[in-house]
Amino acid sequence: MIPRRALLLPAAIAAALALPTGAAAAVKPLSPGAHGDAVAVMQTYLADQTFLPWTSVNGRYDYRTSQAVMAFQGWNGLTRTGTADVKTLKRLARGKRPRPWRKYHGRRIEVHIRQQVALLISSRSKVIRAIHISSGAGGKTPLGDFKIYRKERMSWSVPFNTWLPLASYFRGGFAFHEYPDVPGFAASHGCVRVSAPEAPTMYAYAKVGTPAHVHP
Questions:
Q1: pTM for this predicted structure
Q2: For residue 208, how many other CB atoms are within 10 A of its CB?
């Protein structure tokens, strides 16, 4: 059986950019709230490059899709807005799956601070997912090589008097956790914020003992 993505990808440039095949036309950006075939093809590209799970290719430009677009933009050096402007769509049409750092091996999590992206990497060093995150404002997230040492489905932050859902701690009080606001810039008090749609994926992957490499 031919994979679903193999059927969709050949027509992706024409569909996602709203261009007639073999002809020149104006490129049409896509924004949150949009829906239809063009959104579905954009999502197919995002899923093929690991920024979106295949189960979320639904033709709706929802919050998870916006976060995926932001992850793609951050990884590719574009302004992180979550809106698929012309530049983003054109880059997406020729994009590739993210590559992890070569100096590490095995199943792990990498947090790329400049890109504001976390990579979930398999035991064969293949990127399984690339997820938009928001790290500590002003460089407050500690850099280094850590391991997940504690997990709490609902963790209480004493310093900030708030609940941290789906928290996976990698150093002291610093954790990956769900947060309602995950903007396109470093905004946390030091933890690594993950959006509600992606937080269960991160929580499930970040088993106790999983290496977490956090670097610029």
A1: 0.89
A2: 11
